[in-house]
Amino acid sequence: MPAEPPATGWVFPDPREADDDVVAIGADLEPATILAAYRAGLFPMPIDQAAGMAWWSPIRRGVLPLDGLRVTRSMRQAAKHFTVTMDEAFDEVMAGCADPARPGAWIDGDVKTAYRRLHDLGWVHSVEVWRDGILAGGLYGVAVGGLFAGESMFQRERDASKAALMALVEVLRDGHDGRLLDVQWATEHLTSLGVIELDRDDYLDLLRRALALPLPGVWA
After folding, report:
1. CB-based contacts of 88: which residues, under 8 Å, 6+ apart?
2. Which residue segment(s) compose the domain that 31 sits in?
3. Mean pLDDT of 111-140
4. CATH of the domain at 27
5. Euclidean distance between CA atoms 6 and 191, whole angstroms
């Protein structure tokens, strides 16, 4: 079990009382602050440099039910040609996700530093997908109890990010009912893979139960 970092004193508003996706602006990116946010149902994502860090709790939250991942025949065939590892190339995965050439790129240097610190402390994990020793794609996210909050994914080869997601789901399907795979928003692409939308209150109820579960064995 990862050690708890020292508290920083930030207390986030109750997202149930917010009428917008953005619940708070400001705070720092210390490990304890970020973990407190995820436990409260929030996650950080900058709006712009002048506004400061925004803390989001979408009114409609994207969640992938662990029995709902849509795996097509082509996905299964593609996955056979990849090798999957975990926590072996975190910096490379972060770099791929933060590539400024990607549409909607939002991961800046402060965010990379913050999540690298959490990775070093055992709270943030990466899934890497390789072909012939070359990184083809991957994802990273925050694991707290039975919650895995997916932050970002990328791919350099077709279906590589899907292979990473398939591997992550297998890790989370370890016999503990109630694990929660949070993907923030249900984009068109993620919906095609089985992601659904939940009302914020329903998400927070599932989150409370998920946080009481142990970490998956691979990270415990």
Report:
1. 126, 128
2. 15-58
3. 98
4. 3.30.70.3550
5. 38
